[in-house]
Design goal:
alpha/beta, TIM Barrel, about 40% helix, binds zinc ion
């Protein structure tokens, strides 16, 4: 199985690569820019090329880009909506430039305007963002065809959309033609009310995935333990084994053969690289101990 972590790119792409190598990541995720800002970050073309070559040489992949949390494609406010759509378009281009296979984002919050209207706005924004990104002439050094866009499962705090597979399916149905997929965040789905601590629970969840978005849509797992309990709608990540999902829960998750082909990326609390190293070691240890089912 492929295990990795969310790495900091504030010090530049090459320092993110150094961190990934030091941690021994099989796969990595990083923010497209400051997570609390919609202001576009820029990438130096030469640096992007060195970064791509460094990842390839170290055998690290897939590379995942996470869009800023501030993005709200479901916003009824025109200015926020348009800024979010443009930010997504920019991130698609950035993902292409650094050779990322996936771009993950939270669908958005409807802010009281209703789920139906929110879902329609998200789908329209995704289609428009792809259009905007496609019409920009490709840079000479760009790699690949562009990222698969992943809708992240969210905990359902406030008016968040994307807390159920049905909502994600409705977005995907309306945004046909865009290469979409789903990111399953273990903390978020658990907080949203999906039981993922037991084999029975996980089987039921994956059956639901098959009946809604389809098994092929699952592209990525965010491996996070949860501070909040089942159905709490609390989006607070805990260290692996130290939250409400716990070691036994992760043993069931990591033993599941229906998930084994997916990259698992940590977004656990971190102040230093040691925190990531500890969580990565925990994931690998629990995975090695888990009985495959
Ligand atoms: Zn996220
Ligand atoms: Zn996540």
């Amino acid at each position: 199985m492929k295990f990795g972590a969310h790495v900091n790119r504030a010090g530049g792409l090459m320092s993110a690569l150094d961190a990934a190598r030091a941690l021994g990541c099989d796969t990595i995720q990083m923010f497209s820019r400051s997570p609390r800002s919609l202001r576009a970050g820029s990438v130096n073309e030469e640096e992007a090329r060195l970064f791509r070559e460094g990842l390839a040489a170290a055998g690290i992949g897939p590379l995942v880009i996470h869009a800023p949390y501030l993005l709200n494609l479901a916003s009824p406010r025109k200015e926020t909506y348009e800024a979010s759509r443009d930010a997504l378009a920019h991130d698609i281009m950035l993902a292409k430039a650094v050779g990322a296979e996936m771009l993950v984002f939270h669908p958005g919050s409807h802010l009281g305007s209703g789920e139906e209207a929110g879902i329609a706005r998200i789908a329209a924004a995704i289609v428009d963002a792809c259009e905007i990104a496609c019409h920009r002439p490709p840079a000479a050094n760009e790699a690949g065809d562009g990222p698969r866009l992943l809708l992240e499962m969210v905990s359902g705090a406030g008016t968040e959309i994307g807390k159920t597979f049905e909502e994600q399916r409705d977005i995907m149905d309306r945004a046909r033609g865009v290469p979409l997929g789903i990111c399953l965040d273990t903390c978020h789905v658990f907080a949203a009310g999906y039981e993922v601590r037991t084999m029975e629970g996980i089987s039921r969840v994956l059956d639901e995935v098959e009946a809604t978005v389809g098994a092929d849509s699952l592209a990525l797992v965010h491996a996070n333990d949860s501070v909040g309990d089942l159905g709490s709608h609390l989006d607070r990540h805990a260290n692996i084994g130290e939250g409400r999902i716990g070691e036994a829960g992760f043993r069931a998750i990591l033993g599941c053969s229906r998930l084994a082909h997916l990259p698992f990326i940590l977004e656990t609390p971190h102040r230093t690289l040691d925190d990531d190293a500890r969580n990565l070691a925990a994931l690998r240890r629990i995975s090695a101990e888990a009985v495959t089912w």
